[in-house]
Specification:
single chain, 288 residues, 68% helix
Amino acid sequence: MQEFSFFAAPGNSLGAALAGLFGLLIGSFLNVVIYRMPKMMQRESDNYVAHESGLSLPHTDRFDLILPPSACPHCGHRIGALENIPVISYLLLKGKCGSCLAPISARYPVIELLTAALSALLIWRFGAGLAGLSTLAFAYLLIAMTFIDADTQLLPDDLTLPLLWTGLLVNLNGTFTPLSDAVIGAVAGYLILWSIYWVFKFATGKEGMGYGDFKLLAALGAWLGWGMLPMIILLSSIVGATVGIFLIVFTKRGRDNPIPFGPYLAGAGMIALLYGKSIADNTLGILL
């Protein structure tokens, strides 16, 4: 028992290293989630429309996070176990398909390394107890949502809602914030962006963000409490505005082209989890 307590304690380098290795494996799975979940949603939508129209279903084959096995999108070459080792396989294959030599996006190892680094950091920061292990789920869901939203401007309910309910469950005993603050944070997080959405829509006739953003901020409020919401909104807005201006100026992206807000909310939420209290204390000290 004492050995496990030592392993679970924050600041344990061995626990962080093991979490990093585990994160590599999870990062490989997250690549599958990021690639397949939007396609699964589109297939479900296509089948629903066809069913309501009395047409034959366009998608009858199984397509989920498990089947069919991973394959090269260019030549259909099935990816074997030795070609699916996180990061190492990418390096050995020199970033190309082992069959047709088509290039493999560098984003795959980047996501694996990002997941590994965050896993190690979170376990080192919070330990391998309930708090630390729950933060891994927090990070993994945010990583998946970040890249899905960046690709498709969608935040799936299959990711935002589990994050929301998990946050409330984790805080039943006040792991990160009192349960009352978590409940208020979930409600306030949703209503804040919901209100901004409708004010913007009435003023401009356009939709400034999606409903998934409301749910994501609600989930962050459930994890971190209502007191962290101003910081999350401020951080995400500053970064989002900076990136938006950069894209408009340097990539000639039109102002009417929507920019996903989910990645900035996710990044701000992770910063708030790791350093929110320190930032708040230092800010308060400067103001006073």
